[in-house]
From TrEMBL:
Pfam families tied to this protein: EAL, GGDEF, SnoaL_3
Gene coding for it: cph2_4
InterPro entries for the chain: Cyclic-di-GMP_PDE-like, EAL_dom, EAL_sf, GGDEF_dom, NTF2-like_dom_sf, Nucleotide_cyclase, Rev_trsase/Diguanyl_cyclase, SnoaL-like
Species: uncultured Anaerotruncus sp
Alphabetical list of CDD domains matching this protein: EAL (cd01948), GGDEF (cd01949)
Lineage: Bacteria, Bacillati, Bacillota, Clostridia, Eubacteriales
Name assigned to this protein: Bacteriophytochrome cph2
Annotated GO MF terms: cyclic-guanylate-specific phosphodiesterase activity
C-alpha cells in the first residue's frame, strides 16, 4: 500500500539534501537512525555524523548538484513503517565539465506522533559503462537554468532572482522599480499543525500566484525558506497598495485556505531605490529586509512598510546591542526585577513575575522590549534564558536561607527551547543546583508558543507536572489559541493579556469577552490572572468578573528583586 505522505516527506528530504539545508534535514529524521552512503565507509548513526558527512560531501562550492528529475514510490512494510524508493537524475556542474548522474536512494520511514520520519537511508550511484558516457552529457545552459530555480516551487531562487532583476533594470532602464521582500507569518506553526506536505503546498501556491502577478517587466523568487522577493514596476503608492492587497488576497487558493486552521498573512518591506542603476541588487533587497524586520511578524495581520534611512540606523543600533549582550552577562548588567501579583480575595501578594532590565554604565536602564526581540532572533536567547533562571534561583536560595516566606515566581522562557530534547532536564538541573522547591517556579510560555509547538507543549506540560513545576499560559488573547487546545492542555494558570481589560470600564463587548475567558479558565481548573491593571475602574471590573489574581501598575511596578523581597517577603508582610 502506497503512502502519499511518506513519499512527500521523502521528496522534501531530498530537496533539503541537495540544497544543503541541515536544519530541514534534521526536522525529517527520526532518532535513532542509520545512513549508508555510496562508499563502504559511509555509515552513520546520528544526526551529528550526518551533518559532518554533509559538510564534507558538499564542501566544494565549485561542484553543484541540480535536480532535473525525481521519481519516488512507497511500499508499506507494516502498519507503522514504509519504504520509499527514490530515483534522482542530477545535473553535476564542476570545473571539469557538466554531466548527468542517476542516484538511487532507499528511505525507511516510521510513523511517529508528529508524522512520518526517516529512520534509515541507503544511497547508491549506478555504474555507467564508458560507451554510455555520451548519454549523460548535458549542456551548460540546461544546468544553469536548474541552478537558478528553486527546486520546490519552480520560481527563481536567490541567485536566479538577482540575475533576473539585473537583466530587467538593464532592459527597462526607464522604469521605476520597487523591491518587495516578505515572509509568511507563523509559517512554522503551519508546518507543525498541518504538516510539511501542506506547508510545501502553501509555498508552491504563493510562488505560483506571485509569479502570475508579475508582468514581463517584473520578476520574483523564493529567496529563503518562507521568504519571497519581487521586483515590481512602481506607479505610485496608491497603485502599490492595491497590488499588495491583491497579493495578500491571492496567496493561496480557496480550497487550500479551507484546509488550514489559520489565515495566511505576511510581513513585508518595500524599498524604492532613488538610483536603480547605482546599487547592487542584494543591497536593495537588504534594505527591503530591514523594512520588513521593523514590523512585528507575530501579529495575525498582513502588513508592509516602506524603507526609510532611519531604519538602517535602528538596525545598526540593534546590532550594537547584540554585540554587547555577551559582555553584559559577564559583567552582571542584566538585573532581575520582579512585579508582584496580588490575590483579589485577600489583597495579599500571591506570587511574582521575574522580569529583566539592562543596566548601562551610566546607570540608565534599557527596557526588555528593546532587546528581548533581538535575542529571540538568534540562539543567544537560549543562553540568556538560562542565565536569568540561574539569577532567579540564586535570589530564591538566599531568601530561603534568610527564612523569608518565599512566593512562587514565574519566569518567561523562549519557544526556541522546545526544539531541544534535553531542555527540561537542563532547566531542572539549574533549579536543583540551588535546591529550590519546584512549586516555587512557574514555567511561563506565551500563547503563541502553545500553538506553534502544539505536540511538544502537551508532552512538556505532563512532564512539568511530574517534576512538580507549575505551567502558565502568558499573554492569552493575543494569538491563535483555540478553546479545544485549552481544554486538552493541563496548564495551571491563564494570564489574560492587558489588551482584554484595558477598556473594560467603557466597552461592554470587552466585558463580555473578558468574563467568558475568566469562566473558561475556572472551568478548566486554571487560576485566572489579569495583567496590566492600572486603574481602580479596571480593578473593580475584573473583581466583579471573578478574576483570581491581578498584576499591574495599580498595585506595583516591576521593582529590583531586593526591593521585592524587602516589601513582600518580610516575615510579617503587610497586605497591600
Amino acid at each position: 500500500m502506497r503512502s502519499v505522505e511518506a513519499e512527500q516527506i521523502a521528496q522534501r528530504f531530498i530537496q533539503c539534501y541537495l540544497r544543503r539545508d541541515l536544519d530541514g534535514i534534521g526536522e525529517l529524521l527520526a532518532q535513532p537512525l542509520f545512513w549508508i552512503g555510496a562508499e563502504k565507509s559511509d555509515v552513520f548513526y546520528s544526526f551529528e555524523d550526518v551533518c559532518a558527512h554533509m559538510r564534507q560531501l558538499h564542501g566544494d562550492p565549485k561542484v553543484q548538484l541540480l535536480l532535473e528529475n525525481m521519481q519516488v514510490e512507497s511500499f508499506s512494510s507494516g502498519r507503522d513503517t514504509t519504504t520509499v524508493l527514490a530515483f534522482l537524475r542530477l545535473g553535476v556542474e564542476a570545473e571539469s565539465g557538466a554531466s548527468m548522474l542517476t542516484v538511487r536512494m532507499t528511505l525507511q520511514l516510521r510513523s511517529l506522533p508528529q508524522g512520518w520520519r526517516i529512520c534509515g537511508i541507503h544511497s547508491s550511484v549506478p555504474y555507467f559503462p564508458p560507451q554510455d558516457a555520451s548519454a549523460v552529457q548535458v549542456t551548460r545552459r540546461q544546468l544553469e537554468e536548474l541552478r537558478l530555480r528553486d527546486a520546490l516551487t519552480g520560481i527563481y531562487n536567490m541567485e536566479g532572482f538577482v540575475a533576473a532583476a539585473d537583466q530587467l533594470r538593464r532592459r527597462w532602464p526607464q522604469n521605476t522599480y520597487v523591491f518587495l521582500k516578505f515572509g509568511i507569518n507563523g509559517f512554522r506553526y503551519i508546518n507543525r499543525t498541518s504538516g510539511f506536505v501542506v506547508g510545501d503546498q502553501v509555498l508552491r501556491h504563493i510562488a505560483g500566484h506571485l509569479q502570475a502577478s508579475c508582468s514581463e517587466q517584473e520578476t520574483c523568487g523564493r529567496v529563503e525558506k518562507d521568504i519571497f522577493a519581487a521586483m515590481l514596476v512602481f506607479r505610485g503608492k496608491a497603485d502599490m497598495a492595491r497590488r499588495m492587497e491583491q497579493i495578500r488576497a491571492a496567496l493561496v487558493d480557496e480550497e487550500l485556505r479551507r484546509q488550514l486552521s489559520v489565515e495566511i498573512n505576511f510581513t513585508a518591506g518595500l524599498y524604492l531605490p532613488p538610483n536603480l542603476q547605482g546599487e547592487e541588487i542584494k543591497d536593495m533587497l537588504d534594505k527591503a529586509l530591514v523594512a520588513q524586520q521593523s514590523l512585528d511578524s507575530s501579529r495575525a495581520v498582513s502588513e508592509y512598510v516602506y524603507y526609510a534611512p532611519e531604519m538602517s540606523a535602528r538596525w545598526y543600533a540593534d546590532s550594537q546591542l547584540m554585540a554587547k549582550a555577551m559582555s553584559a552577562i559577564e559583567s552582571g548588567a542584566f538585573k532581575l526585577y520582579i512585579q508582584p501579583q496580588v490575590e483579589l480575595a485577600t489583597g495579599s501578594p500571591a506570587a511574582g513575575e521575574a522580569l529583566v532590565r539592562w543596566q548601562q554604565p551610566d546607570g540608565s536602564l534599557i527596557m526588555p522590549g528593546a532587546f528581548i526581540p533581538l535575542f529571540e532572533h538568534s540562539e543567544f536567547i537560549l543562553e540568556f534564558d538560562f542565565y536569568m533562571l540561574d539569577l532567579l534561583c540564586r535570589h530564591l536560595r538566599r531568601w530561603l536561607n534568610e527564612g523569608r516566606p518565599v512566593l512562587p515566581i514565574s519566569i518567561n522562557q523562549s519557544r526556541r527551547h522546545l526544539a531541544h530534547s534535553r531542555y527540561l532536564e537542563d532547566f531542572c538541573a539549574v533549579v536543583d543546583k540551588y535546591r529550590i522547591p519546584h512549586e516555587l517556579i512557574v514555567f511561563e510560555l506565551t500563547e503563541s508558543t502553545f500553538v506553534e509547538y502544539n505536540d511538544e507543549v502537551y508532552v512538556m506540560a505532563r512532564r512539568l507536572h511530574e517534576m512538580g513545576f507549575l505551567l502558565a499560559i502568558d499573554d492569552f488573547g493575543t494569538g491563535y489559541a483555540s478553546l479545544n487546545m485549552l481544554s486538552m492542555l493541563s496548564a495551571d494558570i491563564l494570564k489574560i493579556d492587558r489588551s482584554l481589560a484595558i477598556d473594560c470600564e467603557k466597552n461592554r463587548r470587552s466585558v463580555v469577552i473578558l468574563q467568558k475567558v475568566v469562566e473558561m479558565a475556572h472551568e478548566t481548573k486554571m487560576i485566572a490572572v489579569c495583567e496590566g491593571i492600572e486603574t481602580a475602574g479596571q480593578l473593580d471590573c475584573v473583581r466583579q468578573l471573578g478574576c483570581d489574581v491581578v498584576q499591574g501598575f495599580y498595585y506595583a511596578r516591576p521593582m529590583p528583586a531586593e526591593d521585592f523581597a524587602g516589601q513582600y517577603l518580610a516575615p510579617c508582610a503587610v497586605s497591600h
